C-alpha cells in the first residue's frame, strides 16, 4: 500500500464508528484465510467489522473512490477460498451483524448476515418453525455466507438448498448503493430474478446485509436406517434404488476411510470392516414412513448390504447424523486436506465414487469420501502431509483429476461450497467459453471497477 | 417495414426450413396478442414456428444483424402482454418444439418448451412421478412460458413455484449464441446462478429452447376442506390461522362474485349466499393428515365459518379444485376482464382483500377476487364492458389502484403472471429507481441492441 493509500485508509477509519476497523497485522492475520487455507491469500490493509448496512455503504463508496479491493467475509468457514484476502484489500466482516426477528404468522425470518446457521435454526425452532438448509458446518458457518455460496447440506435431498429459502435480500452494490430485493412474499415475479442472482454470487456482485428467509413447520420425527456394504459400488447402486422410488429426508454415504476416521475420533460403533456405509432417514409419518423405511431397507438388501439396521429412536438417529457430520474434523486429524465438492447426475454417482477410488489408488494418496449421496454431491477429502513435497504434488494432481472426472461425467466442480479461488481455474472447463463470457458480462455490469472480491469465481481484471 | 427489411425477411425465410415462416397477415394476426388482449399490440412482420435450437439461433443472428425486434411466444396464454407483438417484429413461436424424455432414476424431465404444462405432468405421471407447478391454465399454457414467467399455481403454497423445479436450461442469447446452463444436477453452484436469472425473465434476456426439470414422487392422496364465510375478512383471518400452524397442500380463496360466476357456469353446489369460500387440501398421510384437516377445520370455525365440509373422497376433492380453476373462464362470461395478480406478505392479506372490495365499491365496478390465499397471491378480476367508455375508464382506474394498494402494503404487482407490457408502468413504483437501474444494466449487458422482447418488463430503448 502506498502512502497515498494509507492516508485514504485514515479517511475510511474516520468515516466509520470507533472500533470498527482493525489494522494491526496481528489481528488482521486472522482474517486472511478461510477454512480452505488458500496458500495464495494476501494481506488485508484493514478489516472492517461492520455493524449495519450503512457501514458497508461507507466502505464501498470509499473503495470505489479509491479503487481498493473489498473481500466480504462471514464466519470464515468457507471451503473454497471465497474469502481469501487480497493484498491491500479491505475485508468486510459481518460477524457483528447478528439481529434476527421471526414472524411466525408470515413464517419468515428477517436476519442480519452474521448469525450462525445454527442460531437461525434455533430462533425458528422457538416458534415451532424450521429453517432446513444444514451444511455440516452449521454450528460455525454464517447465514450470510450460506446465501453467498448457496450452501447445501444433508436435508437438501428432500428440502432443497439455501436459494429455495431466500425470499429477500438487502445488498450493497460495488458503488455503495443499498438495494432491497424481494421480501416476505412467497410469490413475486416483478422484474428480473435478482434475489436469486445474488444468492451464490460469492460476494462478487454485492455484499448481503439482510436476509428474509422462508421458514416451514418443524420437521416431524425421523426414522433412520444404517447399512454397511462390501463395496462402494454396491452402496452407490443402493442409493439409486432408493432415490428412484422415494425422496428420503436424508441419504448420506461414507467410505471405509471415513468410517474409520470417525470411529477413531468419536466411537459410534460403526462397522470398521465395511467398505461403505449409507445413512438414510425418512420423516414421512405413520404408514407412509414405515413404507419408506421398508423401501430403503429392501434397496440396501437387494444391493448386497452386509448389515442393515433401522431405528425409530430419535436420539439414536441423531447420534448417527452427528457421526456423519464428524467426518470432516475426524479426517482433519489425519493430515492436511484438499476438500472436494464434486457432483454428478444421479445415474453417474456409482461411476464417480469408484472413479475417485481409482484416482486414489493410482496416485497413492488417501482420499476419504463422504457424500450427500441422495443428490449426487460428494466430498472426496484428499489427505496429505504438507511437509512431504512429493505427496503434496500427488494430492494436487488428485484434486484436479477428481474435478476433471466430475466434468467428464456431466457433473459440477462444486455442488455447495462455491468456486472461490481454489477451484476458479476449473470453472471454464465446466461452463465453457460462452457461459464464462456471460458470467463476466454480469460481473462487469454490476462491478465495473472489479473491486468486489476480485479473483473469486472469475479471474480478477 | 421498409423494402430493405422486406428483402432481409426473404433472406431469413431462405435460411429456415420450409414452412417455418408465416407472413400472411391473416395467419400472423393470431400471434399478435396473448390472453391479456393488450390493445397496444403491434403487427409482426413474420411468425417463425421454430423446430429446434438452431432455428432460434438463425432467427436471432439475423435479427441482430438487421436490428429487428424478436418476441418469443409459448402457447399465448400469458396474462400480462408479455408476448404482445411489436410492429415489424419476428414472433418466435415454440409451439412445434414438443419433445420430452423422462429419466425416472435421475427423476428429471428434459423437455422442449412447446409442451403444455399438463403434458409434462402426464409424461411424469407415467413413471409415477410428479411435476408440481400447476397454473390454473395448466392445460393450455406451455412449459417454456411457465419458465419464462416463473409461473405459480395452486400447489405452490407447499411445493414452490417453477424456478424451484428448473435445474437446467438451453437458452439462445440475443446474438444467436446457444448456451447450456445447469443440467440434471440437484446441487450445482459453479458460477453465477444464471439458470435462475433466465427463469422469470419473460423473454427479455434469451429464448429458452430446452428445460431440465426436477420431478418428485407422485403426490399422495389429498383430504379436502371447503368452508363458507359471511365476510372476506373472516376468511382471510382463517387463512392466517391455518398458515401460521401448518403448510397445507392447497389453500384457495373465492369471493361471493367468483362463487356465483362458477355456480352459473358449472354448478358445483357451492354456497351462493357465502361472501367468501376457502378450499384447502392436505396431502399429509395417516394421523398427520387427519391432524392437518382438524387444524384447518378449527381455524375456519374459530374465524366464523358458517359451513365447513371435509372429505377424503378424492373425486370430490378434485371436483372442488376444478371449480376453483373454472373461476377465470366463468368470470370471462360476465364481460371483458382486466386481470390482477397482486401479492402481499401474509399478514397483509386481510387488508388487501378488504381493500379490493372497497375499491370496487368506490368505483362502482365488479371485481371478482380469487386467490392462492396460502401464499398471499390474489387475482382480483376486474369486469367491464368495453363498449361502455365510462365503465372502461373506471375499470382502468381500479386496475391501477389495486396495484398501488399492493405496493403500499409491501407487496408485489405480480406474483406469478409476470410484468409483461400491461404492468410495466407500475414496476418502477414497486422496485424503486436503484433496482430498476440494476434490471436495466443486466438487460443491456445481455441484449445491448434491445432486440429481445422490447417493451416487456422494461421500457424499450
Briefly, what is this?
Chain A is built from 15 helices and 18 strands. In chain A, helix 1 packs antiparallel against helix 3 and helix 8 packs antiparallel against helix 13. The longest helix of chain A has 20 residues.
Could you tell me the strand content of chain A as a percent range? 15-25%
Largest sheet of chain A: 7 strands, antiparallel
Point out poorly predicted stretches of chain A: none
The total domain count of chain A is 4
Radius of gyration of chain A: 22 Å
Gross geometry of chain A: globular
What is the share of helical residues of chain A?
A: 25-40%
For the termini of chain A, the CA-CA separation is 19 Å
Q: Would you tell me the structural class of the helices and strands of chain A?
A: alpha+beta
Number of helices of chain A: 15
The protein's oligomeric status is homodimer
Plain-language structure description:
2 copies of one chain form a homodimer. Chain A is an alpha+beta fold. Chain A has 4 domains: 91 residues, Uridine Diphospho-n-acetylenolpyruvylglucosamine Reductase, domain 2, CATH 3.30.43; 118 residues, Uridine Diphospho-n-acetylenolpyruvylglucosamine Reductase, domain 3 (2-Layer Sandwich), CATH 3.30.465; 111 residues, Alpha-Beta Plaits, CATH 3.30.70.2190; 112 residues, Alpha-Beta Plaits (2-Layer Sandwich), CATH 3.30.70.2740. Helices cover 37% and strands 20% of the residues of chain A. Chain A has 15 helices and 18 strands. In chain A, strands 15-12-14-13-17-18-16 form a 7-stranded antiparallel beta sheet, sandwiched between helices. In chain A, β8 and β9 form a beta hairpin. In chain A, α1 packs antiparallel against α3 and α8 packs antiparallel against α13. The model of chain A has no long low-confidence stretch (mean pLDDT 96). Chains A and B meet through β9, α7, β11, α10 and α15 of A and β9, α7, β11, α10 and α15 of B.
